[in-house]
């Protein structure tokens, strides 16, 4: 067990019975010392063909204007941002630079990571939003934040907080004002040629020069595809002419050809990177998950071939490549073994080490993927290992995302003790962040489960946190809880085999400014989605008066303890299960007419000691609700009823709506999420042999299927095997040429291959 400070709270973090929170009477502000901005290791070469973009940065820095570069994978955003950060002074940008990946958790965790880059703390601490804004305003630097996923309001808020900084953002979509956002296109022809020649290590012949120019046009000058193609030529696998022809038909063919040229161990390593796309994994972890002894040489080769990113001894894939690479490499991954190996690796490491924190962030992505495959035990194991590490590191939004996945998995698996643990952890974070209503619901739910299933030690820890939640007047009439020392012993027992949280001492991790979805007001104007929701008077100079809870305990209407038990108090509204977090998840559902819908149940519980009438239950298309059991008569005291929600999408993509329940005591709501899905089926027919490839499809016999969650246009190419010829398409395409399909619903196509007739 170890701890982190937030405002007036000390959070003792444990993966056992759950984290324990205590309020501190008084505490001086955290001791923070600025440290020089740390640019990426080494000085990268100037990115070829990016002089125009570097000039944009040079003009923006003196004017204190932010700059955003956006574009799809492979166009070199990371290379550009790392170069600017590493050469911020020598290139004339006037300020020292720092580069960091945004990582999971959105704006709040991004601010925390930035504080960690620029300050050291005298003890493990997470700053409140006010403290974060104050300390970040005191340093001047050029901040290059990569892979950000912010709204326009969040980006504006970030710029207002970083008033002394120059801000450079890399993203897939524009997040700044139009005049500050610049799409990163392909390289100019001459710069692209120089890149190919440098990677090839020799001059181009006259015929190759023509073929390379054709290739550059086919891939739109995208540096990543040019590197992949050059690696295939350098190793004697294909010619530039063949690659240019393949890329003209489908630029994605270069990914497939590059992956197809890999031996098994390289595919195994790349498959693990694809699982954790968006995060960088230490090479030792990849070795543990693949069993590859010479992992360094293996990962370096993937980097040289343009298939993996590398920073120091860490490797990864951009998140925008996750789906494509996972489809190609899915068969190379033993999902159960991968999850077990990652969880085991996390439990044996120092939880405060940077490698552990990075791997825990990767676990968030992998848990989401495992949940899509309904591997509930794997998700639970992974969340138990990763969540305390994220919480200790101050990455509380990422931690709450992990707990959301864990809660959903525990409910689906009927693992009541894990459900109780994850609800306890969610509620404890909500308590620290002043989200009093959510804290009350989550902790009370955890306590009920723990009492019902005989988890007496866990119930004691949850009761303790509920006592901290109640205002002093409510606590005065309560029995005295166990001593903090005894509670700490309980919280740390039992599951230390699951998470070795005691390994090492927490390093001086600087604080996360953010709260979570509820938050606290800052000294800067902020959008509703930014870390600013509760209002406290005055500017917080130190933790003693910050939104970690006042010295006298949380007050007001949000969280005074159990209500509705009489005495004229307003009864609380019904409690929904699942609550807002985690949402009610329906998974992927086929949009084609005639395909079945998916149903989920939502329990509506009356927390009061008197009957509670329900007046209305509603949601919006494509969800429908059946609620007769709840509307027919009032819910009995402490009783419940069940609502059936059906999801039948008619369009592709993610669809979220709210389910609201109106009662005499007020309105309650939960979130509904599902995804519209369509399937492409490719069937090989005939007496001959052949293959069909295109997009993520690579089919050599029988029937192959691929699922799509957004409208996609792809080109299928049929290639006959030796002694065979392609006889034509049937179904979604006709003729003998390439087959171009736009997937908007279930689609089937067959490719017929016949044996060549004998000669003569």
Describe what you observe in this structure:
With 760 residues, the chain is of the alpha+beta class. Among the domains are: 30-183, P-loop containing nucleotide triphosphate hydrolases (Rossmann fold); 575-671, Immunoglobulins (Immunoglobulin-like); 676-755, Immunoglobulins (Immunoglobulin-like). Strands 16, 18, 21, 22, 25, 27 and 29 form a seven-stranded mixed β-sheet that branches. Helix 5 links the parallel strand 9 (142-146) and strand 10 (166-171). The longest helix is centred in the middle third of the chain and has 19 residues, at 354-372. The chain starts with a strand and ends in a 5-residue tail after the last strand.
Could you name the key traits of this structure?
single chain; globular; 24 helices; 29 strands; 7-stranded mixed beta sheet; 760 residues; Rossmann fold
**What is the first-to-last residue Cα distance?**
83 Å
Please, what is the CATH homologous superfamily of the domain at 30-183?
P-loop containing nucleotide triphosphate hydrolases
Strand content: 15-25%
Overall body shape: globular
The radius of gyration is: 28 Å
Q: Which consecutive residue ranges, at least 5 long each, have pLDDT under 50?
A: 473-568
In CATH, the architecture of the domain at 30-183 is: 3-Layer(aba) Sandwich
């Amino acid at each position: 067990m170890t701890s982190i400070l937030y405002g007036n709270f000390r959070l003792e973090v444990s993966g056992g019975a759950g984290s324990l929170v205590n309020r501190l009477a008084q505490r001086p502000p955290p001791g923070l010392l600025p440290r020089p901005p740390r640019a990426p290791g080494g000085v990268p070469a100037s990115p070829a063909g990016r002089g125009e973009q570097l000039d944009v940065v040079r003009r923006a820095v003196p004017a204190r204007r932010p700059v955003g570069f956006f574009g799809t994978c492979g166009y070199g955003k990371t290379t550009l941002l790392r170069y600017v950060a590493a050469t911020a002074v020598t290139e004339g940008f006037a300020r020292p630079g720092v580069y960091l990946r945004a990582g999971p958790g959105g704006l709040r965790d991004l601010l925390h990571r930035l504080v960690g880059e620029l300050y050291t703390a005298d003890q493990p601490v997470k700053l409140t939003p006010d403290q974060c804004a104050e300390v970040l305003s005191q340093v001047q630097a050029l901040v290059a934040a990569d892979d950000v996923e912010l709204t326009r309001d969040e980006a504006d808020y970030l710029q207002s907080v970083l008033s002394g900084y120059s801000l450079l953002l890399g993203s897939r979509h524009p997040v700044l004002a139009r005049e500050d956002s610049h799409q990163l296109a392909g390289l100019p022809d001459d710069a692209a040629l120089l890149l190919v020649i440098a990677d090839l290590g020799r001059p181009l012949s006259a015929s190759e020069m023509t073929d390379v120019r054709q290739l550059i046009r086919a891939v739109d000058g995208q540096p990543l595809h040019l590197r992949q193609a050059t690696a295939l030529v350098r190793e004697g696998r294909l010619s530039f002419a063949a690659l240019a022809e393949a890329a003209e038909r489908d630029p994605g063919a270069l990914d497939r050809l590059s992956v197809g040229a890999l031996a098994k161990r390289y595919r195994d390593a790349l498959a693990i990177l694809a699982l954790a796309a968006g995060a960088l994994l230490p090479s030792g972890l990849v070795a543990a998950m693949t069993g590859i002894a010479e992992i360094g040489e293996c990962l370096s080769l993937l980097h040289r071939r343009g298939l993996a990113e590398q920073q120091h001894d860490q490797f990864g894939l951009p998140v925008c490549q996750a789906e494509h690479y996972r489809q190609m490499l899915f068969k190379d991954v033993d999902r159960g073994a991968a999850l077990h190996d990652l969880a085991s690796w996390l439990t044996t490491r120092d939880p405060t080490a940077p490698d552990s924190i990075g791997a825990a962030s990767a676990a968030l992505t992998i848990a989401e993927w495992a949940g899509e495959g309904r591997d509930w035990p794997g998700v639970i194991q992974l969340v138990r290992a990763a969540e305390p590490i994220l919480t200790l590191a101050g990455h509380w939004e990422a931690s709450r995302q992990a707990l959301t996945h864990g809660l959903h998995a525990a409910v689906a698996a009927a693992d009541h003790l894990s459900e109780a643990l994850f609800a306890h952890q969610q509620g404890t974070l909500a308590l620290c962040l002043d989200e009093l209503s959510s804290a009350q619901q989550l902790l009370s739910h955890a306590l009920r489960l723990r009492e019902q299933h005989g988890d007496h030690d866990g119930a004691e820890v949850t009761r303790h946190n509920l006592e901290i939640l109640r205002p002093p007047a409510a606590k005065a009439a309560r029995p005295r809880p166990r001593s903090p020392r005894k509670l700490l012993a309980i919280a740390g027992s039992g599951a230390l085999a699951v998470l070795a949280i005691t390994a090492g001492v927490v390093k001086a991790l600087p604080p996360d400014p953010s709260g979570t979805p509820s938050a606290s007001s800052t000294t800067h104007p902020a959008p509703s989605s930014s870390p600013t929701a509760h209002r406290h008077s005055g500017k917080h100079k130190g933790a003693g008066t910050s939104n970690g809870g006042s010295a006298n305990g949380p007050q007001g209407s949000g969280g005074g303890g159990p209500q509705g038990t009489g005495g004229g108090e307003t009864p609380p509204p019904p409690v929904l299960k699942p609550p807002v977090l985690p949402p009610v998840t329906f998974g992927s559902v086929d949009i084609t007419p005639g395909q079945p819908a998916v149903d989920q149940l939502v329990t509506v519980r009356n927390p009061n000691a008197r009957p509670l009438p329900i007046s209305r239950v509603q949601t919006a298309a494509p969800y429908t609700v059946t609620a007769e059991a709840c509307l027919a008569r009032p819910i009995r005291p402490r009783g419940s009823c069940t609502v059936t929600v059906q999801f039948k999408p008619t369009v592709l993509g993610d669809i979220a709506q709210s389910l609201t329940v109106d009662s005499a005591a007020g309105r309650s709501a939960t979130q509904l999420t599902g995804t519209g899905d369509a399937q492409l089926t490719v069937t090989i027919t005939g007496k001959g042999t052949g293959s069909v490839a295109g997009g993520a499809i690579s089919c050599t016999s029988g029937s192959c299927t691929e699922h799509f969650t957004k409208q996609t246009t792809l080109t299928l190419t049929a290639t006959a095997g030796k002694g065979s010829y392609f006889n034509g398409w049937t179904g979604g395409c006709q003729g003998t040429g390439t087959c171009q399909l736009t997937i908007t619903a279930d689609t089937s196509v067959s490719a017929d291959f016949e044996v060549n007739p004998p000669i003569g």
